[in-house]
């Protein structure tokens, strides 16, 4: 591709409405353009990256025998009424009416449509298991679209759905998919981590998310320091933007009280107002768990259900966040994660704006309250660790700590939630109709592009992992319009490199070297080859890797070898 025919819409200005670096860089590099809140046009440069991610995903899906389909984006209301999600899905669902006043939605996900397809297509157990997938635009009317394509309203998802005669077959495919996801994220060149996850409003039992690790990630992940244990803390909506996070402080007071203390007693001991403490004392037989994190201010939180929380191994018998809110008469969404061990909450309290946390000790016999002061320096947090030392992790190995991630993939063992509700059966071996068992597997294809930048950038711009870079090599010609030697050598090199299979952006523009170099760094091309008169006199070009600051002189005729 010649840059003279491939306009680079680069800009030096940091866009004021872009909070995180990937959003800023995608705009500055001219990858995307905003149309309206949560709606983005992919410009040619951005689309090249999106398509590369997409083809990695497609190749790995095809490898495991998933069959590509392409379903409508607009879906009839009747299907969602059958599954019960027409009401349940809430405001994320964009509902629309056609000219006959029939109701439709713009698909945020496709469990209903695929279940309808399968109940009409698949008749016998002999056709099972079967797995379909598509790569398609979804629409979710997100409450706070932000961070560009990271949390957009319209975005590109790969969604796959598998159907089985029994749970054993589902578990097998789930494992195959887990392995395929591991290959996909390995191939994109990103640092990632699979974690246990909540199943949210999709439903089902077993579930894992794949997270690209990045400080700006919206999700908090609890990771054990000594074992493989990792789980999502599901704080997705709760985060304060990185800049707003309070400095860590130290507990002003900690108390241990016998179980069943009243809120008034604990608050008196801690020296905080009872209304700050919440009635988290509705802990019932808290074996191994914690209670609630009280947040200050107007934080929006996911409705986190204590009894399902992935970071807690034993099912807890706590009230849900909503119930606690009702009892206390506080605003819906003001209560944070329920059911986490104290060390996790301590970290969360430091990350967010908790004034106070309280909960039950591991032995279930004591209630512990911690008044978390944020005006004290970091080293003193050690005090809190002392207080909570001895609280194991959920799998009994090591201690949990919190890191941040960007959810780029999510797989579920759904079981029969949709197939039962929608009566999707096949004839079993005994000739009797049998309800299908189902799994579903999502990847945020467009989100991966932003996540990759969040993880790979420097002060000059994006630093693409090679497998998803828009171009692999930038061929920069200096003063080409004045030097025939440069023009001829560049043209020959361009041919040679493209023939060798490289994606090359040939910067043949009539622009100052500094401008060209800045653009190439900003858009993050992994390899840069500079052709200039000075080098050509010695038969060399200049090579520099995007991850390096030093140039290498390379003989023209050895360049291809060198790049390998
Ligand atoms: P999140 O927790 O970030 O809201 P989700 O759990 O609602 O995501 P899923 O229903 O699991 O999302 O959808 C599968 C994948 O689609 C997610 O893992 C994520 O990568 C991607 N995705 C979901 N919502 C968005 C969005 N608003 N913008 C871009 N990608 C998204
Ligand atoms: Mg969501
Ligand atoms: Mg999620
Ligand atoms: Mg998810």
From TrEMBL:
Xref: Pfam families: HGTP_anticodon, tRNA-synt_2b, tRNA_edit
Domain Aminoacyl-transfer RNA synthetases class-II family profile: start-end pairs: 33-465
Alphabetized GO MF terms: aminoacyl-tRNA deacylase activity; ATP binding; proline-tRNA ligase activity
GO biological process, one term: prolyl-tRNA aminoacylation
GO cellular component terms listed in the entry, alphabetical order: cytosol
Enzyme Commission identifier(s): 6.1.1.15
Subcellular localization(s) per the UniProt record: Cytoplasm
InterPro entries hit by this protein: aa-tRNA-synt_IIb, aa-tRNA-synth_II, aa-tRNA-synth_II/BPL/LPL, Anticodon-bd, Anticodon-bd_dom_sf, Pro-tRNA-ligase_IIa, Pro-tRNA-synth_IIa_bac-type, Pro-tRNA-Synthase_IIa_type1
Catalytic activity: tRNA(Pro) + L-proline + ATP = L-prolyl-tRNA(Pro) + AMP + diphosphate
Enzyme class: ligase
UniProt KW ATP-binding keyword: yes
Keyword terms of this UniProt record: Aminoacyl-tRNA synthetase, ATP-binding, Cytoplasm, Ligase, Nucleotide-binding, Protein biosynthesis
Domain of life: Bacteria
Keyword Methyltransferase assigned: no
Coiled-coil annotated spans: none
Entry similarity comment: Belongs to the class-II aminoacyl-tRNA synthetase family. ProS type 1 subfamily.
Domain free text: Consists of three domains: the N-terminal catalytic domain, the editing domain and the C-terminal anticodon-binding domain.
Function of the protein: Catalyzes the attachment of proline to tRNA(Pro) in a two-step reaction: proline is first activated by ATP to form Pro-AMP and then transferred to the acceptor end of tRNA(Pro). As ProRS can inadvertently accommodate and process non-cognate amino acids such as alanine and cysteine, to avoid such errors it has two additional distinct editing activities against alanine. One activity is designated as 'pretransfer' editing and involves the tRNA(Pro)-independent hydrolysis of activated Ala-AMP.
PANTHER family: MITOCHONDRIAL RIBOSOME PROTEIN L39/PROLYL-TRNA LIGASE FAMILY MEMBER (PTHR42753), PROLINE--TRNA LIGASE (PTHR42753:SF2)
Entry-linked NCBIfam families: PRK09194.1 (NF006625), proS_fam_II (TIGR00409)
Subunit structure, as described in the record: Homodimer.
Stated name of the protein: Proline--tRNA ligase
Organism listed in the record: Alkalilimnicola ehrlichii
């Amino acid at each position: 591709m010649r840059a003279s025919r491939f306009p680079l819409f680069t800009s030096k200005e940091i866009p004021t409405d872009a909070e995180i670096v990937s959003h800023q860089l995608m705009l500055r590099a001219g990858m995307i353009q905003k149309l309206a809140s949560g709606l983005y046009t992919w410009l040619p440069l951005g689309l090249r990256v999106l398509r590369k991610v997409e083809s990695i995903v497609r190749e790995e899906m095809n490898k495991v025998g998933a069959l590509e389909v392409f379903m409508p984006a607009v879906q009839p209301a009747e299907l969602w009424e059958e599954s019960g999600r027409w009401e349940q899905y809430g405001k994320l669902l964009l509902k629309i009416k056609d000219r006959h006043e029939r109701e439709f939605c713009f698909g945020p996900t496709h469990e209903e449509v695929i279940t309808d397809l399968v109940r009409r297509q698949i008749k016998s157990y002999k056709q099972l298991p079967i797995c379909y997938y598509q790569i398609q635009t979804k629409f979710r009317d997100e409450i706070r679209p932000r961070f560009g394509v990271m949390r957009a309203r319209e975005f590109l998802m790969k969604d796959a759905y598998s159907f089985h005669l029994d749970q054993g077959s589902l578990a097998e495919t789930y494992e195959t998919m887990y392995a395929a996801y591991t290959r996909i994220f390995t191939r994109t060149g990103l640092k990632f981590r699979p974690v246990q996850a909540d199943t949210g409003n999709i439903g089902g039992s077993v579930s894992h998310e794949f997270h690209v690790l990045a400080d700006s990630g919206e999700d908090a992940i609890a990771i054990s320091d000594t074992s493989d244990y990792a789980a999502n803390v599901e704080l997705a909506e709760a985060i304060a933007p990185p800049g707003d996070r309070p400095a860590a402080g130290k507990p002003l007071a900690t108390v241990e009280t016998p179980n069943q203390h009243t809120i008034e007693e604990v608050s008196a001991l801690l020296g905080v107002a009872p209304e700050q403490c919440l009635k988290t004392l509705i802990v019932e037989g808290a074996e191994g768990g914690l209670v609630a994190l009280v947040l200050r201010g107007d934080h929006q939180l996911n409705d986190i259900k204590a009894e399902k929380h992935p970071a807690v191994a034993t099912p807890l018998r706590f009230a849900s966040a909503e119930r606690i809110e009702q009892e206390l008469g506080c605003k819906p969404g003001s209560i944070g994660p329920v059911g986490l061990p104290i060390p996790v909450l301590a970290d969360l309290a430091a990350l967010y704006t908790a004034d106070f946390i309280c909960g039950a000790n591991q032995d279930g016999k004591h209630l512990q309250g911690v008044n978390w002061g944020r005006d004290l320096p970091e080293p003193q947090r050690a005090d809190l660790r002392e207080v909570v030392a001895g609280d194991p992790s959920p799998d009994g190995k090591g201690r949990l700590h919190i890191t941040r991630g960007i959810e780029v993939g999510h797989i579920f063992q759904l079981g029969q939630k949709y197939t039962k509700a929608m009566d999707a059966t096949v004839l079993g071996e005994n000739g009797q109709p049998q309800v299908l068992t189902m799994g579903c597997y999502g990847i945020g294809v467009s989100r991966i592009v932003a996540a990759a930048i969040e993880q790979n950038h420097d002060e000059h711009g994006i630093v693409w992992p090679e497998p998803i870079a828009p171009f692999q090599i930038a061929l920069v010609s200096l003063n080409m319009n004045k030097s025939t030697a440069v023009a001829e050598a560049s043209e020959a090199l361009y041919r040679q490199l493209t023939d060798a299979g490289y994606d090359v952006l040939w910067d043949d523009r009539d622009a100052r070297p500094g401008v060209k170099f800045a653009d190439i760094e900003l858009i993050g091309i992994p390899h840069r080859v500079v052709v200039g008169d000075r080098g050509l006199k010695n038969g060399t070009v200049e090579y520099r890797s995007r991850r390096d600051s030093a140039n290498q002189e390379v003989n023209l005729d050895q360049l291809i070898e060198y790049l390998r």
